[in-house]
Specification:
Layout: E1 2-5, H1 12-15, E2 17-20, E3 30-40, H2 42-49, E4 65-73, E5 85-88, E6 104-108, E7 112-114, H3 121-124, H4 128-139, E8 148-151, H5 157-168, E9 172-177, H6 180-189, E10 193-196, H7 202-209, E11 215-220, H8 223-233, E12 234-242, H9 255-260, E13 264-267, H10 275-290, E14 298-303, H11 307-315, E15 322-326
Parallel strand pairs: 8-9, 8-11, 9-10, 11-12, 12-13, 14-15
Antiparallel strand pairs: 1-2, 3-4, 3-6, 3-15, 4-5, 5-7
Helix pairs in contact: 4-5, 4-10, 7-8
Length: about 325
């Protein structure tokens, strides 16, 4: 099969190469997916660059999300998967060196979900880690009906899905962004109010929008960087679900304030979630997709041979949505 891979960590243009590798076979409990699209997440770039993770295997096919058609079913896996259109997550995680920057991937049937016919493969490849992470971050605050949720980074891949899922579940959603263009994207996703954190006082604006009451729950893209501001508008007995903390990687946490106000902090990392939580996310995302009105944003498309350029597009940090690699292109 054709694939992209790296044998050492470093800059994308220096370490990523493409060519022919052996085609995988579906093992026990696995399915093989002929990939039509591969989603590139920031974590895929971190792993390749070596900035946050050591080299895990002698050779790595990057990217963990994707979409395609099941063309082989291993022993013990449900034969009904054969021929199904699917999206998948955690492809290059949990003990697998070979991800989705390839024509094929073999992985546990637990990691694939049926893709509705009206969602194309590139859009399906944007789901995976961003949408599953967003689901966990949002539904930790359930029940959501009538509650007010803040989504920071509302134009990012996780943030945009968090807005849509929270709105779908009946919450009132406020989002923060860094530009007018991103504000429009967050509004299209369903945010009732959008705050440009570079130009506005976030805490003051949220308190004004909520009549001084603040928000019930925060889906947080930068826990350490935003915590001092968050505590100004988060209600007592509120909660924070944080999936990143790039602004302050070793934050100081005011434990006694959190304790006195009974504030709950959740760290969210998809590969470590209980299987029951991941199954619920897959089920809910399927219902949400079938309901229509969703916004799945492909930021850019690259052929497999240009996987390095796809990684560089993610690393620039100005994308809106998910960068996709198309193995068949």
């Amino acid at each position: 099969m054709r694939a992209a891979w790296y044998d050492r960590q470093g800059p994308a243009a220096e370490v990523l190469q493409s060519g022919e590798l052996p085609t995988p076979q579906a093992g026990p409990g696995e399915v093989r997916v002929r990939l039509h699209a591969s989603g590139v997440n920031p974590s895929d770039c971190y792993r390749r660059a070596g900035t946050s993770f050591p080299q895990e295997y002698p050779r790595v096919i990057p990217n963990s999300d994707g979409a395609g058609i099941v063309d082989e079913v291993g022993a013990g896996a449900d034969a009904r998967w054969l021929g199904k259109r699917v999206w998948l997550y955690n492809g290059q995680r949990n003990g697998r060196a070979f991800g989705t920057a390839a024509e094929y991937i073999a992985l546990s049937a637990e990691l694939v979900t049926e893709l509705p016919d009206d969602v194309d493969f590139a859009a399906g490849a944007t789901l995976g880690i961003p949408c599953m992470t967003a689901h966990r971050c949002v539904f930790l605050a359930a029940p959501l009906q009538g509650r007010t949720i803040l989504v920071t980074g509302g134009a990012g891949a996780v943030g945009h899905y968090a807005i849509q899922l929270a709105k779908w579940a009946g919450a009132r959603v406020i989002a923060t962004v860094s530009s007018a263009e991103k504000a429009e994207h967050a509004r299209h996703g369903g945010a009732e109010h959008v705050i440009d954190y570079r130009r506005e006082d976030v805490a003051a604006r949220i308190l004004a929008l909520t009549g001084g009451e603040g928000v019930d729950h925060v889906v947080e893209v930068d826990f350490g960087g935003n915590l001092p501001t968050t505590l100004k508008f988060l209600r007592d007995n509120g909660s924070i679900a944080a999936y990143a903390s790039a602004g302050q990687r070793m934050p100081t946490v005011p434990f006694y304030e959190l304790m006195r106000r009974n504030i709950t902090l959740h760290g969210v990392l998809l590969p470590a979630l209980p299987i029951e939580a991941r199954r619920r996310a897959q089920s809910d995302i399927t219902q949400w997709l079938r309901g229509g009105g969703r916004l799945l944003t492909v930021a850019a498309r690259f052929p497999l041979a240009e996987t390095a350029r796809a990684h560089e597009a993610v690393e620039r940090g100005d994308k809106r949505g998910t960068v996709v690699v198309e193995p068949a292109a």
